[in-house]
Amino acid sequence: MELAGLFPVLAMLVMIAGFYSHSATAAMLAGALALAGIIAFALADRSAPVIFVLVGLAMVSVAALTQPDWWGGTWNAVERGSFVMALYTALSAIRIAAMGSEEILECGRFLAGQRPGLRYIALSIGGHLFGLILMYGSIALLGGLSKASTMRETDPELRRHRLRRMLVAINRGFAATLCWSPLGFSMAITLALVPGASWNNVVLPCAVNALLLIGLGWGLDTLFKPRLSHPAPPRAAPSGKWLRHLRPLLLLLAAIVTGVVLLHNLVGVDVVAAVMTCVPAIAVAWICLQGSLVVGGARRHLSTQVSHFVRRELPSCGNQIVLLFMAAFIGSLGAFMLEPVLPRLGLDLSVLPGWLIVVAMVWLVPLTGQLGMNPILSVSMILPILPAPEVMGVPPAALVAAVTGGWAISGTTSPFTASVMLLGGFAGLPARQLGLRWNGPYALCMGCAISAWVLILIWLI
User: Fold this and answer.
1) Does the entry feature the keyword Lyase, yes or no (predicted)?
2) 10 Å Cβ neighbour count for 1?
3) Distances (CA, A) of 46 to 88, 315, 359, 409, 446
4) CA–CA dist 418, 414 (Å, integer)
5) What is the pTM of this model?
6) Which of 183, 146, 148, 158 is nearest to 276 (CA)?
7) Domain ranges of the chain
8) Which of 11, 81, 346, 431 could form a disulfide with 329 if both were Cys (CB 3.0 to 4.6 A apart)?
């Protein structure tokens, strides 16, 4: 089980090498290593979602019987899954480095301890900034600190309302990263599947979605804050300036952005490849810096942390890695199998208005999330069978904004996403109840707002 963690790391390193060598052999080797890792995790971890592996094997069998070029489609799906695994491994490296930093933890405590008037927006922005680096770890970190903060409250009514508003703020702030961040699966996968799309061209339209998610959430929280049966006691805000507490997080983000921009502009690799290169390198440098302050020095600390990452951290995430890989695999292979079937059924999506397809994606991604489909699966299956943006007569940026916006809504409502399940654990509520009851009206408002924005994009661009 411990050695299973080697496969994602090797797949990531080989894939990074392939970005710069443009070698088809590197892509094939990364796919083979990722596939070996999935087999190792599925056999060693009883909590791994083996049902998805069985579904994938069944789909391969059907493809072999019905598609003459089934092997090419199957291996393309393996490479899509290996890309997701490699990106997850790279982002996990920076998460481990960050969680070992006392400055980052103190930043989280500062945000969770804000007075009621600032708490929602502080945690929403904090959830966004932490989410850029820690992914779901941001919810685990801030959610845990928020729960610890509310446990000191003696009034059960006040404690219940305060915890709910804090967790909702963190969740919505994290979900906003899915709209635009090149460090996330949503943007990486959508850019790979939308012809003519690049991060440089979509970042501003998608960032508007993120602002809508945070701003509208703040507005709804302010308008519909719960009424208490008695006034809440005054609470002092934590001491210290915001910039001083947020400085470690902002410096880390600045280092990642600078590295990605330099690689993208000087070497010419795309933004996602630059992210996958820079993030592990910065994680290693940060761990060495932390090690220079402890007994044993940087080299020993780095060796210990790398060993822990490979032998403990990645194997403990085996079920999540299997789920993400299989979601990408099933989605890609499903699209490959559906593409030749649609014309035989008389379904021609190109006859539909392009604006209608784009708006439909805003709603389709969160709706499929309610049915148990991870957004990686649904997006990987739906986008390849859509007409290209130029055929639909819409700008690629509008389609990307619609997909990532719908992905973000799914991240606040779907009981099958890691973010909602984590929040359910902190709140002590079922994930479905939490997603729909706490965020259902918010999701409807966001769906309407993002739909209006993508229609404006189609008209403007």
Assistant:
1) no
2) 14
3) 21, 12, 40, 31, 38
4) 9
5) 0.92
6) 183
7) 2-225+244-460
8) 81
